[in-house]
Amino acid sequence: KWLNPNTGVMFPSHCTMFWGAISFEEDRLHKINEYNSSMQDWHEFSGNMQKNYNINMSALTPHYEKEQSDYFIHSSLWTELSPEHLIGQSVIIKQLDLNTCTLADAEAVSPIKYNINVPFPSKVSGFAGWFTCDFAGS
Question: Is 28 in contact with 125 (CB distance < 8 Å)?
């Protein structure tokens, strides 16, 4: 009933990629707490190394701090979002007709200029990207 009568298969026909500002403070604060916990563990470890073995670990602290910051605070992450997390209007960053696009078409997203207007006072916790697939005929 739902399959293509000529091929007997059903595939998505179009894909749209979106980008938008989100407010999800619970998730952001969780990542900051993980970072702070990791740094606390480091300071305890380096203090124990100094106390028990007379080894000064302070030369490694800036490198460890940068590594933890990059991982916990400055890297992307996957999370489940709800529509209420989106603030402002999302932006379409790419559309593909999956019946005609090539691998080259799908490999990258070209830089575009966009504005995301936040219509009410809110904290922007980050940005999210997602996509939809439509079954308009394959």
Answer: yes
